[in-house]
Write a structure and sequence with these properties.
This protein is of the alpha+beta class. About 35% of the residues lie in helices and about 25% in strands.
Length: about 140
């Protein structure tokens, strides 16, 4: 395969990941479970659960945000700080912060094996690039 074709293929694959990940982040930010359901693969496990069990958990998280008066979430890039993370310490993900409550929930996005998001895991010790933190069981964590 020539170099130009390889570069084009790589760029297309990177854009596919970027597009898939951005769509998932947007679904979280807009608190749109039906959009998220369409983006997740029926045959994959997310956070060691089937798609539908994972989505039930997400619906519960989003309902907690709503109960605190949130209508939108803001995504902050960052990484996991947990030494025992199943995806790996420093794994990249997002901290989602409620627009009214300031409550936070963090998720790691794993895409090591393909150009689509392969797994999404709740993170128990997360630092965003802009200095926001999220710890499991803290008062700001849902």
């Amino acid at each position: 395969m020539n170099k130009t074709l390889l570069t084009t293929k790589k760029t297309t694959e990177e854009n596919d990941l970027s597009t898939h990940e951005k769509a998932i982040v947007k679904a979280f930010e807009t608190m749109d479970c039906s959009a998220l359901e369409k983006l997740l693969d029926e045959d994959k496990e997310y956070d060691e659960k089937n798609k539908w069990a994972f989505m039930n958990g997400i619906k519960n998280v989003l309902e907690k945000f709503r109960k605190h008066g949130d209508t939108r979430l803001t995504a902050h890039n960052g990484n996991c700080n947990n030494d025992d993370c199943k995806v790996g310490k420093n794994a990249r993900g997002y901290l989602f912060e409620g627009n009214n409550s300031g409550k936070r929930a963090a998720f790691i996005f794993d895409n090591k094996k393909s150009f689509l998001v392969e797994n999404i895991c709740r993170c128990i010790n997360f630092n965003s690039d802009d200095g926001k933190e999220c710890f499991f069981l803290s008062k700001e964590y849902l």
